[in-house]
Amino acid sequence: MIRKLISRVFRGKKKKSAPHAAAVIPVASHGITRDRLSSASRRTCEALQHAGFEAYVVGGAVRDLLLGAQPKDFDVATNATPEEVRRCIRRSRIIGRRFQIVHALFGQEVIEVTTFRGKLDANTKKDEHGRVLHDNVFGSQAEDAARRDFTANALYYDPASENVIDYHHGVGDLKAKTLRMIGEPRARYREDPVRMLRAVRLAAKLGLSIDPEARRPIRDMAGLLENVPAARLFDEMLKLLTSGHAVKCLTQLRDEGLHHGLLPLLDVILEQPLGEKFVLQALANTDERVRRGKSVSPSFLFATLLWHEVLVHWARIEASGEPKIPALFQAMDHVLDVQGEKLAITRRIAGDIKEIWSLQPRFEQRTGKRPYALIENPRFRAGYDFLLLRAQAGEIAPELATWWTHFQDADGEARAQMLLPVSDDDKKRRRRRKKPKPANPA
């Protein structure tokens, strides 16, 4: 107890320890100046360093800056414990169970702060397949670097000195356009099978080749993804789809045999020529939006990936005698239930997906007041974009999409002239609905 108390009192006053067995690359060699960092990441490092701790911008942000790209987020690694980080940064909170991290809040920007992780040992809690379940073991910077997945992600940038600290030749691998695993790949994939998906995503996004030693075990070990929590798979799949290189990622997922563990229904979809064209068109559109800096809707993405499986089940249920619209809703529920076993699609996103799907039959109704009501629907734009995609893929006649494009842009009189005449079947249905019910006998 006394030793712990003394350690706690003096930890904040420790001098920075020099990195051990690491290459220290000066700014003159790598060219990254501190003004390239976000203000929040600089302030986070400054606050921790001012308190006597080590603090570095780490991982993907350093990697992207070295490649000349603008990082999406900036993470910080430190030798301060989560509780110590919490005391140094006023607006922050500790999150996580498997491995505790701190979210430092600076307006709209959130900086993820992690404590250097220590070596895994015999006491590390794992499942029967070797996946690490609990990892709140802290260590040195050198140990933390060894625990990271790829050499390109084990890079530390010190805003104070503007040096890059490289333990595993990550800078050299980036120059060689190689994504190399730190440690023995099979062991690292067992610790965290999501690393296989991350390898595919990073290679596609950064234009790197996966090192043969890291690539070779992937197909054989793909089954380990079965043991990953559905929520983690969903998060990783979302990162992959919104990377700006979704088409390339999907192609490589198939090449590595990993899509079976992610989207089981995607196998079936991609075996259908029309389904494959639809999915690839959707992902190409998404990649273009990402490159142009536009937002991407997860609901829309997953709606496109699973739509053709909905069509298959819809046709089957309707053929059994179920009316068209109830058959559609049964098909939607079935597809999302099956997919939910693998990916923890949130209830909100699932609800949005179903709205996009359920609007599609309504676009076929171009008489009376129905088109006006549809345009007022809050999800009209998403449904309309989905309709355009179906037309681009050749699933529906382009004329239907063109009609809705003109209808929404037309004024009141022009809209009225565009409405189609009411068919005889519609007239009969309306008469049946309006027919008064017989009075109850007294």
Structure characterization notes:
The protein is of the alpha+beta class and 442 residues long. The chain folds into 2 domains: 7-182, 2-Layer Sandwich (Beta Polymerase, domain 2); 280-421, cca-adding enzyme, domain 2 (Orthogonal Bundle). The protein is built from 24 helices and 12 strands. It has helices at 2-11, 27-30, 39-50, 60-66, 82-88, 141-147, 170-175, 185-191, 194-206, 212-215, 218-221, 230-241, 246-256, 259-262, 264-270, 273-291, 298-319, 324-340, 347-359, 370-375, 380-392, 398-409, 412-418, 424-434; strands at residues 23-25, 55-58, 75-78, 92-95, 101-106, 109-115, 125-126, 132-134, 155-158, 163-166, 178-179, 209-210. The strands form 3 sheets. An 8-stranded mixed beta sheet has the order 1-10-9-2-3-6-5-4. A two-stranded antiparallel ribbon has the order 7-8. Strands 11-12 form a two-stranded parallel ribbon.
Question: What is the number of helices?
Answer: 24
Low-confidence stretches: 1-19
Number of separate structural domains: 2
Q: How does the major sheet shape up?
A: 8 strands, mixed
Task: List its traits.
single chain, Beta Polymerase, domain 2, cca-adding enzyme, domain 2, 2 domains, eight-stranded mixed beta sheet, two-stranded antiparallel sheet, 24 helices, 12 strands, disordered N terminus
Q: What is this structure's SSE topology?
A:
Blueprint lengths: L1 H10 L11 E3 L1 H4 L8 H12 L4 E4 L1 H7 L8 E4 L3 H7 L3 E4 L5 E6 L2 E7 L9 E2 L5 E3 L6 H7 L7 E4 L4 E4 L3 H6 L2 E2 L5 H7 L2 H13 L2 E2 L1 H4 L2 H4 L8 H12 L4 H11 L2 H4 L1 H7 L2 H19 L6 H22 L4 H17 L6 H13 L10 H6 L4 H13 L5 H12 L2 H7 L5 H11 L8
Parallel strand pairs: 3-6, 11-12
Antiparallel strand pairs: 1-10, 2-3, 2-9, 4-5, 5-6, 7-8, 9-10
